[in-house]
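_Full entry_
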Amino acid sequence: MSRTRKAGFIICFLIGSQLVRFCLENMFLYEATSEDTIKPGKAERVLPAASEYTQGSRYGIHYFYKSEGFGNENWNPYDVTLVLHGSVDRLHRLIEITRVWRGPISMSVFAPAQDASFLDDAIDGLRLCWTSIRKTTSFHIVYPTTAKGNTSNIGSFVYLSCKDIIRRLRRKVKTDAAEKSIPYPHNVMRNVAHKGVITSHVLHIDADLKPTGHLRDRLLEFLKLRTQTNNQYQARQKDLYILPVFEVRHEAGPIRNKTDLFSAFEKRQARPYMQELCPQCHKATNHELWFRSSSSTNITALHTSYTVRNIREWEPYFVSVRKRPHLDERITSYGHDRLVHRRILASPRIQKQSNHVPERKKQKRTKNKLL
């Protein structure tokens, strides 16, 4: 057999083996991602009694689900915790978020019925493959008492590789909650994630937003400076430090600093967050004034740029102290739900951020940036 024929045979063998492996992997993934149903006669295994109930026992809550605790090197009471919430189809976002936010994360997950089985497997898979998630992220389960979390079908992640776990998480586009038309309690989810915070400050964002690199480190520097220079710091606990948010087209390229962001903004490749869907929700942030507030490109430390009084229909993303009013849980529908607190928060303050911006998952050829 000539060398050419040998080489061709080897190449065909390698290609064929990879095709067979790909088919077998996808066959297993298809079986794993198909909607699980409880067979007749099969005993259901539900989550144990909730550690807390809210809204008149309407929702059950499990704080720090399958928690491994915090190591001494990772826990610091004076820190900023990133607070997230979402359904099980948003869990894959944690992989990207923990790559840039190297600090504590508190995430509440809505997992009624069979979604609890998927969540249980996903937590094990995420912690096994990504050390950053295992060390920094705490999960809190929320489910309606009329559809208790069912863990009868756990174990579908056991033989999956890390690559296949990502595929499985991203393929979870239809949740059990959506199929059964179970409403998502936005403010309950936010409050649960907030109660899981053990640090001095919090940053609430949506699961589809991505913080910028080094944002946590610079926030810590900023908050430390504010504590040292402000003799009346305890009396100003109601101050909020607003983070401007942007949507940036993918063709704009990487946004490394404020100059890059302003260039993309002038070319109409970047725009304020939710400018089309809800322009009044972030109008008060005054992004143009924020751009003009500092023309220097060498500023690396955070500082306040200007002050804005609280305005109706304003829904900013902000850093605040942990001990702040919770959101009104009676509002369960989407839209202006983040506006209503149990007590009025006074004097939100605009904070100029670092020269970096975070990303949001691609949607209609844009990605959202949190500065």
In short: The CA atoms of residues 252 and 269 lie 6 Å apart.
